[in-house]
Amino acid sequence: MSEFRDQHEQELPQLEAMKEYMEDIAIPSEVDEKIWSGIRAGRLRRRRRVYTRMAAYTACLLLLVSAASVRFSPEVAAYVGEIPALRPLVELIHYDKGLELAIDNDFMQPVGLSEEQDGIKMTIDGIIADESRIIVFYTLENMDGQKSVVNLEKVELTDNKNTSISQAFYPHEEDWKIIQGTIDLYPNEGASIPDYLNMIFRFDKVTESATNRPEWQFAIPVDKAKFEGLKETYDINQTVSVEGQKITFGAMTVYPTRIEIEVDYDPSNSKKLFYFDDLRLEDEKGETFSTINNGVTGSNISENSQVLYFQSNYFRKPKHLYLRASSIRAMDKAMREVKVDIDRKELLTRPDSKLTLKDIGTSSEDGQGILVFEMKNENPLDQNHMFSLFESTYKDASGQSFESHMASTSGNEAEYEYQYFIKKENYQSPLTLYIQDYPTRIHGDIDLRIK
């Protein structure tokens, strides 16, 4: 273990000198995406359970936190060349071509702050930041091999008491040595980015016998001069019709970390449009930049307006750019209600025969009710996709509204189990749930020239 610590301490100075190293090393402009698509598909094919917490967030910053064990491939090793400290950082953002380009173009801000408590050393390795997004890279080290981190329970900015946190954390195996991950911060429109991010981290379990719950605190410097004014704006302002459903694409803003496109849906549309299957930006060379699929994919402005987020091509500077798609997941608005008779444990209404009610149970931990659904779907377009079936709001027969704050999904390519947690209440049956995403579609080519 001491050898491991020595190695990591040697790597931190290399991260600090990353700028000079990158100028001397030829980094390819693109890593083989097909290989990593296969890896992601393989992981999804294994049976697993994914938990999500649902809530309406209105605070100034939204934090999305993800943690991952470090894994390397020959392709990643070749990509980062002779910079050992950069290897895990590139691995963590390998799902996002735009962030890879940001590192390639010297956009990383090295930090190298560390703090050790209760045998756990946490290091803030660096950040990538602009006016739209801040990505914080961190490392956890199990210094004596005795500790077990189960969950990153708390992340907050102490200077902003209204910070909302969207948790997507996963337990880690026993006897771990090193964990590295990222934290995404999304300032609201018009919110200023501070000179320092004063952040607090806490884990819900460090050792089996731990009696205290230590917190790690950092003041992370932000070099705002590095990204000041780095954005480009385009007015698309074009309306398309797909199977009679009208969609208007408004302004597009290009930042180094992501692209934002405003989308409006005609209120008179007969269908609720959930998500675009293959919406992408494509340049004159055929290179594509897809919507973000690991992190915050979009934000709702109103019932019929939203902002979609794409991987950024800011550092590519394409001569021509097109917005393209061919299918959209959608459903007739009248079919979105799913009514559950909780007394007879049966569905009174549902979109189609793919969705069934498997069981209604009770959580052993807090007494919450659990609605267990099953969905069978063999459409190739939906392979390796887990659907967030329902909105968080549901109603009972009296018309009273409630909020579900947790759901879980598990399954394989063709069959999924979805658990929807409901509060312990004296409901008037039936309950009404509202479809948020479903494998029904409309098709039609969208091909808009942006520049």
Automatic annotation (TrEMBL):
Organism: Paenibacillus catalpae
Residue ranges constituting the DUF4179 domain according to the UniProt record: 47-141
Signal peptide region: none
Pfam families reported in the protein's UniProt record: DUF4179 (PF13786), DUF5643 (PF18705)
Bilayer-spanning residue ranges: 50-70
Record-linked InterPro entries: DUF4179 (IPR025436), DUF5643 (IPR040680)
The keyword Transmembrane helix is assigned to this record: yes
Residue stretches making up the DUF5643 domain: 232-341
Protein name as annotated: DUF4179 domain-containing protein
Superkingdom of the organism of origin: Bacteria
Keywords from the UniProt entry: Membrane, Transmembrane, Transmembrane helix
Taxonomic lineage of the native organism: Bacteria, Bacillati, Bacillota, Bacilli, Bacillales
